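Supplementary Methods. Inverse-folding protocol.

Structures were first reduced to a discrete structure-token string of length 127. This string, shown here, constituted the complete conditioning input.
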């Protein structure tokens, strides 16, 4: 199974049933995605257990989970890239962060958010 889609599904299901933690298989891309969610304030923190699993502690407020919906745009059978101009259009339409954010795997070997890609003038594959 695709690791990013499994990551999104597990976090969505855990937040719907109001679990405190979620355990996910560890990989570099999942760990970087967790760091992005931590940096944006969607999760409390995460711990790497036995170099095989990530334990993610979810964040809740009075209305419920902070994560409303998390999904993956790419699939193992369908991979596409976005140019800098397309990312810039999404970023400007999402000026106040009302739509959400988009994480992209760039050719520089790191995962960046949409506004970071616009500031660096790079494109990438959406996760």
């Amino acid at each position: 199974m695709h690791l990013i889609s499994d990551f999104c599904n597990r976090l969505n299901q855990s937040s719907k049933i109001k679990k405190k933690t979620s355990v996910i298989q560890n990989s570099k891309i999942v760990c970087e995605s967790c760091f992005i969610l931590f940096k944006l304030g969607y999760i409390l923190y995460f711990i790497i257990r036995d170099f095989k699993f990530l334990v993610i502690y979810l964040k809740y407020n009075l209305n419920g989970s902070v994560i409303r919906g998390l999904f993956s745009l790419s699939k193992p059978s369908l991979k596409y890239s976005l140019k800098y101009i397309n990312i810039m259009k999404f970023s400007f339409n999402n000026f106040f962060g009302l739509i959400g954010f988009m994480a992209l795997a760039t050719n520089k070997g790191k995962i960046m958010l949409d506004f970071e890609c616009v500031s660096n003038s790079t494109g990438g594959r959406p996760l």
